[in-house]
Amino acid sequence: MADKVTITDVARVAGVSRQTVSNTLNSPEVVREATRRHVLEVIEQLGYRANQAARQMRTGRSRLIAIRIDPGGDGIAGSVLDRFLHGLTESAAQAGYRILLYTAPDDHSEIATFEDLLGSYEPDAFVLTGTHHGDVRTSWLLERRLPFVAFGRPWSEMPDARHPWVDVDGAAGTEAATRRLLAAGHRRVGFIGWPPGSGVGDDRRAGWARTLAEHGMDAGGLSRAGEDAIANGESAARDLLADGVTALVCASDSLALGALNVAGPDVAVVGFDDTPVAGAVGLTSVHQPLGQAAAACVKLLARALDSTEPPTTHVLLQPSLTVRRSA
Amino acid sequence: MADKVTITDVARVAGVSRQTVSNTLNSPEVVREATRRHVLEVIEQLGYRANQAARQMRTGRSRLIAIRIDPGGDGIAGSVLDRFLHGLTESAAQAGYRILLYTAPDDHSEIATFEDLLGSYEPDAFVLTGTHHGDVRTSWLLERRLPFVAFGRPWSEMPDARHPWVDVDGAAGTEAATRRLLAAGHRRVGFIGWPPGSGVGDDRRAGWARTLAEHGMDAGGLSRAGEDAIANGESAARDLLADGVTALVCASDSLALGALNVAGPDVAVVGFDDTPVAGAVGLTSVHQPLGQAAAACVKLLARALDSTEPPTTHVLLQPSLTVRRSA
């Protein structure tokens, strides 16, 4: 049922080559006046509109930015990237770009998808999410000098990991949470996070630990770790509560929900990411400015695309605390 | 920092026109053998890959499917479309298409965005979400014979609303929920839904009402309505509980969460959409097969794109009940 008018239709009806149609639109000075006028009449008559394909042929720009979309696990943490994606789509549109989606189960599949996309849709740039230690995607893109921005800082001290990135200061978020709990009078503030080794998780733990240290408190024995699941939050909280902890800072809303399930009303709990679940159950949680992060990504990309030097700029945004009844 | 090789680079290095490069790739029979061999050598040497733009110029197909992404409100119901979007991206990739995102605050902005996209990226097709009574988007697309599929059935009896659509049978979902509650011995089963007039909401209410009728029960006075928010679920549940209701079927997880907040442990509550929040709080909820729905949309679109007749096929999928501790 496609009845879109293509450049081929215009060429056929006008009795000229497609190149002449293209020249009429893009380089009118090389087309004879009479031909040009005739082609423009046919364009008008058929309702043809110079399209992105023609513009891309001319400029070498697709005006597409590609990003991965994830299945979202239990869907609690997944909502963070969904909100980021919405912001990115809006900011990109304002800058004259559109968002192209792809899925990839792991880094190597994602690199294969980069190659596939570059050979077909030719996105002008990529937005990487879920950066981690030894991220092979960044080195792959850097080696090929392909424009990209990471939402998430480079977690490895790689000498060549110089690329634009945008991130939210997770440690500042858990610091704010810990300060609030100390100000409320709690003296044994525990932390429930992920197993050591993840950049994001270690950073969130560090904010809690350094705040206790600044208050002359010993963090020793007050931290537990587990994969990001409600059940792990429950068992870690049980363990810490048995040790006399009265308040809990958690690396995610999933872990915090588990803590809430086993904590009595006097125990304060703070989550991380301010997901819809946090709003639904009254959980105080660290909020990331995802719309701002998305806008910053588009801004850095637009700069990278208009520059001949590899840009190394980065933006570290500050989170805030959304206070509800849990703390 | 873009160093992508374009058709212009190949033409310059080879000393031929871009049209000759294009012909070499797409219509080699019209290019002299020596020229063709020379251009192919330059293509090899520069690492140029025939790209989507060239293919689009040739075929009139962009291999792009456009869909709107929403802000998601309280984020609870939003997760449904996010899961659908992930499935759509995967199914589209398997069929050789990629997903292009846009945002639009209302129907008329969305139509303006259709025009903008058609004049630039030229998506091959659109996927509409959030269909409703008197949906002007469908008539706009139908009038222009543009290929699209709606995730959501046409709710108006418009004579021209003949287009492919995929939906999940919401009434069958609330029917299954109501049957379960009746089988558990409940005799006063209430319904909390949205204000009358929304196709989706009325359909979900109808499934509950017809199941009570089938069991010879009177639904009169057992239904309450409010906008989709936790607080409205709370007040509606309070009201129905005061009327002796012992079980509640809700049109959304947001309303069901409100009901759970005010219901005692003996009151059974069923939500709709099986969102992450439902999993987190142990809410029994109607589950929509979103991956299947996305795959069906891609299948109908692929058929529409390869046919000259406007297809009117539709797919109505059956939901299931995800049983947790609330009912």
UniProtKB/TrEMBL annotation, chains A, B:
Domain of life: Bacteria
Residues in HTH lacI-type domain copies: 5-59
Taxonomy of the source species: Bacteria, Bacillati, Actinomycetota, Actinomycetes, Streptosporangiales
Name the UniProt record assigns to this protein: LacI family DNA-binding transcriptional regulator
GO molecular function: DNA binding
SMART domains: HTH_LACI (SM00354)
PROSITE patterns: HTH_LACI_2 (PS50932)
UniProt keywords, alphabetically: DNA-binding, Transcription, Transcription regulation
InterPro entries associated with the record: HTH_LacI, LacI/GalR-like_sensor, Lambda_DNA-bd_dom_sf, Peripla_BP_I
Gene3D superfamilies: 3.40.50.2300, lambda repressor-like DNA-binding domains (1.10.260.40)
